[in-house]
Amino acid sequence: MQYIFSTFFLSAALWLDHAALALILGVVFSLLFNPSQDFITKRIGSILLQIGIVILGGSISISSVVETTSHYFIWISLFVLVTFILGIYLGKLLGVNNKVSYLLASGTAICGGTAMAAIAPILKVKSEDLTVAMTIVFLLNALAVIIFPFVGIYLGLTETQFGGWSALAIHDTASVLGSASILGDKALEVAATLKLGRTLWIIPLVIFSAWYFKEKRINSGLPLFVVFFGCAVLLNFFLSPSEGISNFLKYATKLFLLSGLFCIGTQSSRLILKNIFSKPLFLSLTLWGLVIPASLLVITSI
Asked: For the whole model, what pTM was predicted?
């Protein structure tokens, strides 16, 4: 029966064609039907999102990637470093556990759950601490997908500005793309390029974390979908697909992103939601409250 209703909810998400609604429908389905941990939507959400991101790479021209990345590279690097250091400092001020602060600072500075999952084995954090940190970031990202497009439209941001703002201010790649896709293809392209460039900071993060926490077994932590995304961009450059193929790739990207966001939404649960109201939540809200206006100021000034 759960499979039937999940299919119905997913179909509604695709029909509505809105990233925020897809995520919300996933949360509603999870709260209503409480699917088990091995339910299919909980297992394939990240995979669908990553496939969507790779397909998106096939519709992005390499000239656009070079132009956008070179223009924002210094700002992305400064953003990552300042946000990470600020998160650690605020964690100390608020009395948050050092490792939890490190997780949340990493997730906010780089790429949300991906960064936290990459360094969790090095930090050897408790499973419940990681779950709470991941849930906090998930909820903030859900809010971002809903609120950011309205703010962007209200402020009159161009698609390029909005894509850059989303890429800097929102944690997870999926939510960055979900937010940007609402404003248009150009916003989605800029957001994908800048966010995946920001994701590359996982490599120095993991190396530094391994040294700082005296862990010798170093894994680069670089997600494969980032590599495949780059390969897809290169294929676009060498093959120069027609406009029809590019439009098809963009349509496929939208289907995978909407489906993935729905599935990510189903990962929520009542038990986890009850455990997030704590100092880590206040830390995340404070840090994010500083990041949002700062990143907006940067994007609109350059």
From this structure: 0.72
Q: Which of 165, 125, 111 lies closest to 294, judged by CA?
A: 165
How far apart CA 59 and CA 243 sit, in angstroms, is 9
Contact by Cβ (8 Å): 125, 99: yes
Contacts for 16 with CB less than 8 Å, ≥ 6 apart? 22, 25
User: Which residue type occupies 213?
Assistant: F
The label of the residue with tokens 């995946």 reads 196
237-277 pLDDT, tens per residue? 888 888 888 889 888 988 988 898 788 778 776 656 565 66
According to DSSP, residue 109 is labeled I
In angstroms, the CA 141 to CA 150 distance is 15
**Cα 253 to Cα 247: distance, rounded to the nearest angstrom:** 10
pLDDT tens digits, one per residue of 276-298: 667 889 999 999 999 999 999 98
In this structure, are residues 255 and 54 in contact, taking their beta carbons and an 8 Å threshold?
no
Residue 221, Cα to own-chain centre: how many angstroms? 16
Q: Within a 13 Å sphere around the CA of 273, how many CA atoms are in the beta-carbon half?
A: 11
Q: What is the Cα–Cα distance from 74 to 198, expressed in whole angstroms?
A: 11
